[in-house]
Amino acid sequence: MFHHIKNFFVKKPTIVTKEDILKDPLPQHIAIIMDGNGRWASSKGFPRIAGHRAGAENLRKIIELCGDLKIHYFTVYAFSTENWKRPKEEVDALMSLLVEYIETELDVLKKNGVKIKIIGNVEELPNKAQLQIRKAEKETSINSKLFLQIALNYGGRREIIDAVKGIVRDTASGQLQLDDIDDNTFSKYLYTVDVPDPDLLIRTAGEKRISNFLLWQCAYTEFWVTSVYWPEFSSKHFYMAIDEFQRRHRRFGGL
Ligand code: FPP
Hints:
By secondary structure, the chain is an alpha/beta fold. It has one domain (22-155, 197-247): Undecaprenyl pyrophosphate synthetase (3-Layer(aba) Sandwich), CATH 3.40.1180. It is built from 9 helices and 6 strands. It has helices at residues 6-9, 18-22, 37-43, 48-69, 88-111, 127-139, 156-172, 183-188, 235-247; strands at residues 29-33, 73-80, 114-119, 146-154, 200-203, 222-225. It has a 6-stranded parallel sheet with strand order 3-4-2-1-5-6, sandwiched between helices. Strand 3, helix 6 (127-139) and strand 4 form a beta-alpha-beta unit. Helix 5 runs parallel beside helix 6. The longest helix is centred in the middle third of the chain and has 24 residues, at 88-111. It is globular, with a radius of gyration of 19 Å. The chain binds farnesyl diphosphate (FPP). Residues 34-39, 52, 55-56, 59, 78, 83, 97-98, 101, 150, 205, 230 line the site of farnesyl diphosphate (FPP).
């Protein structure tokens, strides 16, 4: 209830443990902009794709951690609508990595009760990727422990425009009345339908911007940035982000 009390009475620790964060309510929905794969690779003298590979490996670990903490919703930004501008070689490698990732991880995700949903324009992805995605969504659809949203070919503005189109269509056909359109109705036309807005958004690799990610949904989301590159983001940083979240007094615009 009064988790902002941590601000006044508990000294901010330099190392945050799992026990520390379990003393207060956890964020129900965490989102991450997994940035810095390329810079991580360059800093080690590796090709960029080695960075993405290491990033995918790290994603596996952080998904496990979410399961361990009993976080209900987890959303990651894997490929934006702007990422097509990258060299073809890198785009192709990212797509193959995605297919490979789902192929190798699906059984474990199923076993761990993870329900997968891809948000973004899947129909514009290569056929092979689409097939893997649909298979993963179908085979995990009955799971309910952790709801994992992977943003792929995702853009926040595009999502909002798609929602507007859906609303206009349903209004024109008489299924929806103009006066019934409010925040709640609008949310139902987004890709994230039925998923609560993120409580905490983490961005790795130092940039302090939203980069067209969950624009509507992040209206009141707490933002936490670290300079650590995504492949090196670990449980230590995850706990620090959650601890900081628990210290902030969330007012939702009120007093
Ligand atoms: C940002 O790093 C990361 C991406 C554009 C892709 C994120 C992908 C993964 C973490 C792995 C693949 C995911 C799945 C689901 C298989 P960047 O390349 O922009 O890094 P830079 O800013 O240092 O160049």
